[in-house]
Predict the 3D structure of the following.
Amino acid sequence: MDGNYEIIDLDEKELPDYSFKAVISGNSGVGKTSIIEYEINNKIKTESTSTIVLEHYYKNYRINDKIIRLQIWDTCGEESYSTLTKNFYRSALCIFVVFSLDDANSFANLDKWIYEIKEMNENESPMIVLIGNKSDKEAERKVSKEEIENYCKKMGIEYSFETSAKNGDSIHELFKEVMKKLYIKFVEQYNTDIYSTKTFNSSSQNSEAPACGFNSEKCKACGCFIF
């Protein structure tokens, strides 16, 4: 990791200085919830259960002298819920799109997810992170590294990672890299309070901002409740 950015996981429930909204999407069964569970709770999810429409997670990180909260919305991969879940793409700063390295169909369906993301964010440019999960199943691999690289070039996706929610490979590294990129872009580069939780998302602020005043009941932009 380049640059002098000290990124520390915070278990304690401190009030954050900034709050960033993220969404994780992809086919059902590719391991989306397991990836989040490993990052948030540092444990392997042994039971395979499908997300019921939407679930909400969050984690605090200390980056240099700031506490950053990443709010992650875990979406259901079922087609029948797509109309509801895709609305949560709005105003997300980062969207993780997951496929399974041992499932060619989940890779072929990436176009669907990317199209929905761009459709719901016409005037925004969220960071899209492609995740090839189940790297522990190398013997059953159906999607090559070359295919992934070519797809990223074609779709203009800058960041891609291979992970294993079964043994935790590369998951913590993935989130630390993403948090560094978000910190640089939305704290250092913009030098703005739009994403600060010390403000209250008042009417004088950008109404499309994907951040919430920590003490407000609801985020005006995305409708999420802050925990």
Q: What stands out?
A: The beta strands are 7-10, 18-26, 54-63, 66-75, 94-100, 127-133, 159-162. The first strand starts at residue 7 and ends at 10. Residues 171-189 form the longest helix (19 residues).
